[in-house]
């Protein structure tokens, strides 16, 4: 197992917590929680050692696309490729966006 941590600039804290994937099932899971503001941290637990540069490149593309809310993100990849994790992150961001839209008057 390898533990990786990445940080990216961010805006104000996310509005809510989001979980995608099935916890403890052996399926890829992503947990988003509101951050402290100004920074998003991504902690990855992966069973594939030696892919830190690949993860860095994948996450840089995800966070360069548009400014995001400040979050603490935990990813348990269970051997999924960074590209598949990117799709799961997109799912989590959609859920976060949907929650934010529901709160608006």
TrEMBL record:
InterPro entries hit by this protein: Mal_deCO2ase/Cit_lyase_ACP, Malonate_deCO2ase_dsu
Top-level taxon of origin: Bacteria
Organism: Cupriavidus yeoncheonensis
Subcellular location: Cytoplasm
Modified residues (O-(phosphoribosyl dephospho-coenzyme A)serine): 25
Record carries keyword Mitochondrion: no
Matching NCBIfam families: malonate_delta (TIGR03130), PRK01220.1 (NF002293)
Keywords tagged on the record: Cytoplasm, Phosphoprotein
Protein name: Malonate decarboxylase acyl carrier protein
An annotated GO cellular component: cytoplasm
Pfam family, one: ACP
The record's account of how the chain is modified after translation: Covalently binds the prosthetic group of malonate decarboxylase.
Cytoplasm listed as a keyword: yes
Residue intervals passing through the bilayer: none
